[in-house]
Amino acid sequence: MSFVFVTPQSVEDVAATLSRMQSSLADVYAAVAAPTTGVAAAAQDEVSTAVASLFGGFGRDFQAVSAEAHAFHANFVSLMQNGMGAYLSAEAANVSPLQTFEQNVLGVINAPTEALFGRPLIGNGANGAAGTGQAGGAGGFLIGNGGTGGSGASGQAGGAGGAAGLFGNGGTGGAGGAGAAGGAGGNALLFGSGGNGGSGGLAIGGGNGGAGGAGGTSGLFAGIGGVGGAGGAATSGTGGAGGAGGAGNGFFLGFGGAGGHGGSATTGTGGIGGAGGVGDAAGPIGFDLAQGGAGGAGGAATSGVAGAGGAGGAGVGRSVIGFDLVAGGVGGVGGTATTGMAGAGGAGGASAAPALFGFGIAQGGAGGAGGAATGVGGIGGVGGSGSTGAAAIGFGGGGAGGAGGASALGDGGDGGSGGLGVGLLAAVGGAGGHGGAAPTATGGNGGIGGDALSFLAAGGNGGHAGSGIGPANGGNGGNAGTVMNGTFNPSLFGDGGDGGDGVNGGTGGTGGSAGMFGGTKGTNGTS
């Protein structure tokens, strides 16, 4: 019968069900008692009286039997409830010695390091008290997460998150008090992620919101940088800036944390999004994988200017002999606006794969989209620029430009330019971002396509102009080659990017130049 099991909760549930059944049956017995024990005679004759007496006797016998069954039921429910108590007592008796044993063992292990350094060998750090801005305690030297920082009182910054041990995650930073910055996230050491930054405090009156805390750094061998804290909101002041994402400084793996969102504002200015953390894979030999963190979104604004998105973090590989696969982080989206100007998108993060003996792929981060505007006279935000992707031996791709923000009752934002692609073997320029649409006004211009410099290259296409009722221009296509120090340096082989189309009489973009010995010039965009 090893498949049969009992838990205190299951016994309690059964007892409760039986108790409800007992109550329901008692109600039924009471309801039928009068009509079954006192059956009226159908007539005044002797036969009718005898029949009524007979059935009334049956009813009284049934009530007597029911009373005995009710008593048995009540006794059985009581036994079930007592059994539940016995199970709970047995479990408590079993758990308590195990907990005591565990605490005693940890006490013996941690005693030397606590006596010498005031820090355990194994265990999580203590959390900071709320309202004090106290830092979180460090985790155990060997295993342990850092403690969470305490929140700040009004005007007081949040406490920093505690550092982790060799294995563990950094503690989260505490939230800032009113108008104050959030605490930074704690750092990891070998295996673990950095702690997230604390959020900034709300603005006091017409003041500014507090900045978000920076994310903590990842562990050396595995982990992700902590996310930056969000900026605090404001009314007529400026929203707090988002905290920067923590760096991912791994030996072979490096992943940066995302930046925090900027704080919103009503009549003031939205906060800037936090920059993404750098993703840095530092192994000199072997396989390196790195990704920069995404930039945080800009803070929204109602009648003021919205915040710009944060820049994406760089992605860097450091392998000299081996394989690098790296990418820059995406730029943050610009903040939205109602009647004001929406925020610009953040620039993408650059990437570099410098392996000299091996192969590398480097992709630049895309620019963030410009923020949208929804009210009368609101202007869409400009798209962020794509960034450079460069590989010493291998493939480099430029990041795409961010799209311009649309506007419902105003002008659309321009698209961002594409990033440069550089690689000895092949490269592609990033496409320009499309202009933002504006149904009642002028759409945004398309972004310029990125150039590409390589043995085999392809320039990025220019972005198309955004739709609207006014003229807007398309972006030029990227070249198979690039201009350096005022001189155009063409690639050996490659196609130029196509120019973006203009709208409503706007000029189409010019197609990019082809390679020196082969390739096709990009097609010009239509007007």
What does this structure look like?
- The structure is a single chain.
- This protein is 19% helix and 14% strand.
- The chain is built from two helices and 19 strands.
- Strand 17 (481-484) and strand 18 (487-490) form a beta hairpin.
- It is extended.
- This is PE domain-containing protein.
- InterPro entries: PE-PGRS_N, PGRS_rpt, PPE_sf.
- Pfam families: PE, PGRS.
- Residues 4-94 form the PE domain.
Topology:
Blueprint: H1 8-37, H2 46-117, E1 248-250, E2 253-255, E3 279-281, E4 285-291, E5 315-317, E6 321-327, E7 351-353, E8 357-363, E9 373-376, E10 389-391, E11 394-397, E12 407-409, E13 421-423, E14 426-428, E15 452-453, E16 456-458, E17 481-484, E18 487-490, E19 493-495
Parallel strand pairs: 1-3, 2-4, 3-5, 4-6, 5-7, 6-8, 7-10, 8-11, 9-12, 10-13, 11-14, 13-15, 14-16, 16-19
Antiparallel strand pairs: 17-18
Protein name: PE domain-containing protein
Domain PE: 4-94
Region (Disordered): 496-527
